[in-house]
Amino acid sequence: MYDDSLLTIGAFAARARLSPKALRLYDRLGLLTPAYVDSATGYRWYRIEQVERARLVALLRQIEMPLARIAEVVELPGPQAAQALTVYWGEVEERRAVQGAVVAHLRDRLSGRRETMYEIKTVDLAEQAVLTERRRLRGDELPRWIPAALGRLERAAEECGGVAGPPYVVYHAEVGPDSDGPAEACVPVTDARAAQLWLEKHRTGASLRIEPAGRLAFTRVTKAQVAYPQIGSAFDAVERWTARKGLTITGPCREVYFADWDAASATDEVCDVAFPVG
């Protein structure tokens, strides 16, 4: 085969400012397929028009974009590819902000610096019926899932006599980078019978259960303190206080949202971090 419009892998690598090794990797991953491969020798040939794509793949690799997303981006028209890049980088910055908060939290913890002081209180709750959604998910999914799930449950509760108390989220197991819970979104409902009939009619995947009467040990946190990992300090504080008081934790931890999240500022108190105790 001879085609003077094709470049050898060495010539193409020089044009693209990449190594032949990188080009072989991109071919293997399906990101940059040669224009022609000699069936006898396996030698690769490229077209000059492929240089721009090769450089784009290399640049996206430098910002650690996952290979599957690179494969999507390089197939998009310019404006759509730019938007996809913007979305990806926003996710990166959000992840780095969380990682930075974790580092700051760990630095204070390991160095023995004074931790935030929390005021712990208790409250007795009556038995109540609650509409719930339960789901296994990772920590980075919580900020989107919690308001969506509570919103769905609150709308359902309004059709069943109204919301009977502040919504809350119960963590039946750790939710984080390596653990998927599950978590349970809960909204107290006024009329349990009406709620059961609503569930039988709509079959949304939600359920109804009775939350028994009991006591909560809790501390109140601001909107800024709800962010991970700061909220972990609040849970730790409630656990330590419970142990000092000789109380026993009788159920999974929870976050009780008593304020309008969207209207609250970073310094407004919005949430009770709590454990059932006995």
TrEMBL record:
Record InterPro entries: DNA-bd_dom_put_sf, MerR-type_HTH_dom, MerR_fam, Reg_factor_effector_dom_sf
Family matches, as PROSITE patterns: HTH_MERR_1, HTH_MERR_2
Span of domain HTH merR-type: 6-76
Single GO MF descriptor: DNA binding
CDD domains the UniProt entry points to: HTH_BmrR
Xref: SUPFAM superfamilies: Probable bacterial effector-binding domain (SSF55136), Putative DNA-binding domain (SSF46955)
Sorted UniProt keywords: DNA-binding
PANTHER family associated with the record: MERR FAMILY REGULATORY PROTEIN (PTHR30204:SF97), REDOX-CYCLING DRUG-SENSING TRANSCRIPTIONAL ACTIVATOR SOXR (PTHR30204)
Record's protein name: DNA-binding transcriptional regulator, MerR family
Organism: Streptomyces wuyuanensis
